[in-house]
Amino acid sequence: MGKNYIESAKLIDKNVLYTPAEAMELAIKTSKAKFDETIELAVRLGVDPRHADQQVRGAVVLPHGTGKKVRVLVFAKGEKAKEAEAAGAEYVGAEEFIDKIQKENWFEFDVVVATPDMMGVVGRLGRVLGPKGLMPNPKSGTVTFDVARAVADIKAGKVEYRVDKTSIVHVPIGKRSFGTDKLAENFHTLMEAVIKAKPAAAKGQYVKSVVVSSTMGPGVKINPVKVLE
Asked: What domains sit in the chain, N to C, each tagged with a CATH number?
């Protein structure tokens, strides 16, 4: 571990579960890199993702965005393609982008949106987009005829959350430069969405642990009982 990490770790008491506000403040204090580090959240849930009825997945617009410029690729035709362009999508098209991705290994985009009628075509990219978490999905609002709204939400700071095979949800909630208040607001918005998405099949304690950290910094544990306070 680097010198900065070791110095930062001294500011955190590993035996303490902090309030969200305290944790955001510490995440900023322990962010020592010269660039504007991303503040990330890791939430361990009491679900078994091997079961279909215990999947946790969705999307939410963070009030202050993520601080990252998001490049959007939209698969649409006709009027819907024009709507996507007007909403600010960087790339809009159909089969030509399928070929570009398959043949040129082109991935200069961060989110993919598609109209339902295009999913038959986009489905051919399942093996390529799926492992990268880029496949459009109705649950995250990226398969829709309302492409203008989808693009606007993504540009405004919409993030997708999804439990991984270790039962953890990893989501960025902003940049160090946001400050404590904005990060805390983004944190609460995300946690409300994750808690609301609790599967009926999930038993026992749902939110088991919550840790916030900067890109290069140590983790700060948040009291899971106080995530909405």
From this structure: 12-65+159-226 (3.30.190.20), 72-156 (3.40.50.790)
